Amino acid sequence: MTENRESTVVIVAAGRGERAGQEGGPKQYRLIGGAPVLRHTVLAFLTTGLFRRIVVVIHKGDHVLATEALSGLGDTISLVTGGPTRQASTLLGLQSLSDNPPANVLIHDGVRPFVDLDLLKRVLEGLDGDHGVIPALAVSDTLKRATNFVIDGTVDRQGLFAAQTPQAFPYRAILNAHVAASEQNLQHFTDDAAISEWADMPVRIVEGSPDNIKLTVKRDIELADQRVSSATFFPDVRTGNGYDVHSFEPGDHVTLCGVVIPHEAKLNGHSDSDVALHALTDALLATRSAGDIGTHFPPSDPQWRGAASSIFIRHAAEIVRAAGGRIANADITLICEAPKIGPHRESMVAAVAAMLDLDLDRVSVKATTNEKLGFIGRKEGIAAIATATVVYPGQLK
């Protein structure tokens, strides 16, 4: 399969959708299952993790609609203003990638929200640098040719296929083909494979999916809404836990949740020994199965000696957000006999919220003693337990 970071998606969603009627606005913004069609389409690609960038080409008057429809999906997605036709819009989407060109590009209809991972894998596996690839279904219905609704004859369906999207191509080749067609004012092509054929680039067919329908008329949207609404939806909510402990050594302060607190001893460790942030870093990493703090910041590496643990927290948050995750809650429990946490709790909550760019009510910091039991009860150190809740795009299977 083509490497993940070598493929980019251009989703064309600049049309007006006249055949679906104008009640409720352009069809790519109609609601199915309570969310815009375009959001479902983008999520179908985003949740696979297969693509380094997703470009959505929109109508010049739809920026507010598009921004609202795609809110919270992360910076993997960018918007590009389209042109008067689908062909012109696709060219503008392709040209927007020229500053950081991918090896391959997939071009998809914004109103095909049911593309699935298996189909995407088949398309990607068909790419080899010389060919385009499209998913298609063999025509099964009998086809008739007619004039004024009077049959002239029956069309042999042998070797006929109904084309779908996404259609995938080597980026430079399909961009050049689109540019050449535009320069010759050829605007009759009905899909990107047709332009590829015109430019003498071979196009392979891989098996499409009967579920990968294009929402064309009002009835299509109604059926799609029923399909999504009737499906049991299990959001991808993940919870990670972290635990850390540090012993005391001679000193005059401790750093907890990024807040410096005067104390008769300090915590022993390689960095600033912020036991609370270390536990929370592990909790965040756990939601991505991304190892632990030592995996990313090994204590054997001298560059982390005395480092502020806020560096570790922000790194973990970047990993979460790069996967489209949204941190819903961070909860920290400090276990110690001293120092007293209560007088500093609000400062700690504010510091953690700032590190994670969260509202204050999404961060909890609390403390308990160990009832004078064990090493904590003997005031030999501090332990911390942290829990992070993160919501990722998509749903559980």
Structure description:
The protein has helices at residues 37-46, 63-69, 86-95, 117-125, 171-183, 192-198, 218-230, 275-286, 293-296, 310-322, 345-356, 374-377; strands at residues 7-13, 31-32, 35-36, 53-58, 77-81, 104-109, 132-138, 143-147, 150-155, 161-163, 167-170, 203-207, 235-250, 253-256, 259-262, 265-267, 326-335, 363-368, 381-395. With 397 residues, it is of the alpha/beta class. The strands form six sheets. A five-stranded mixed sheet has the order 5-4-1-6-11, sandwiched between helices. Strands 16-13-19-17-18 form a five-stranded mixed sheet. A hairpin with a 2-residue loop joins strand 8 and strand 9. Helix 5 (171-183) crosses helix 6 (192-198) and helix 8 (275-286) runs parallel beside helix 10 (310-322).
